[in-house]
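To: structure desk
From: M.T.
Subject: fold request, one chain
Message: Could you run this one when you get a chance? Sequence is below, nothing fancy, just the single chain.
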Amino acid sequence: MKALVYTAPNETQLRELPMPELVPGEVVLKIEAVGICGSDMHAWHGHDPRRKPGLVLGHEFVGSVAQSAAPGFDLGRRFTGNPLITCGTCEFCVQGRNNLCANRTMVGMTRAGAFAEYMSIPAASLIAMPQDLPARAAALTEPAATAWHAIHLVLRVLVRPIHECRVLVIGGGAIGMLSALLLRHLGAAEVVLAELNALRRDAVARYASAKVVDPRETPPAEAAFDVVIDAVGAKPTRDQAIAAVKPGGVVMHVGLQDWASEIDMRRLTLAEITLLGTYTYTTADLRATVAALARGVFGDLAWVEERALDEGQKAFVDLDRGLCAAAKVLLRP
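Reply: Done. Structure tokens follow.
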């Protein structure tokens, strides 16, 4: 089978690999579409020691069952999936918070991912979906569920309803775009999105109906937003988020571009700001997101770009150089 292999920092190669081995309890999927995630970009740059050269990346996928060693998974049936392989028995799994599983592994990190014609995965990780759901929608389940999980955590702690709130989203990548689209659907009073890339600003303005700003030219006003979502996670964006949120407001930290940085804990304390961290999604979030995508909650997804798998290296380069307007690029094997 053909697979796009991460071979060295800033390099992937299209290679011919053996078909995945079918083991009990797992299925082999024929991949229809797979998204390039920000964490894939991070790995491609050589910045993620957990993802080593020789690995097939990719964890945002949709595919059909090509082989099955698990009962009830018929050949040809289409699925998306939870790339987190969880134990099902730790305290977090039994609480329904399997995104925090103490024993989790991950597709495209600890095992081969979906930048390939075929991929193996435990059947327990598959997420049922409408069989007529377009591939571009189904492949967006994972990033859309990340936005879904984060925003619903915010909703739990808001003092006033979201339709009274001004929201700042920092970053116009997939999580930022999907967050803006979901916030619009939920009726947020105003959504402002800060993004450095002019191509992405245009896409957000066109498809998410959000006010977009270049934070270098128009920095978000201080203490002006009820909610701030940092979908980048760099030191400057963390500082910007803490500065921009109102007293009593909520900062949701989603992005992980930088591993660590200091924040203004004095302002966080004196202004009684709620700072939330989030990691991915639960299985329940994934199922809810599939239903939301099928209902059109995230719009028509016309902003998503599709390319062939053998254009994968160029797609990584274009994303790295800011030459791609799309917040999400899907590869089609």
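Reply (cont.): The longest strand covers residues 26-35. Let me know if you need anything else for the meeting.
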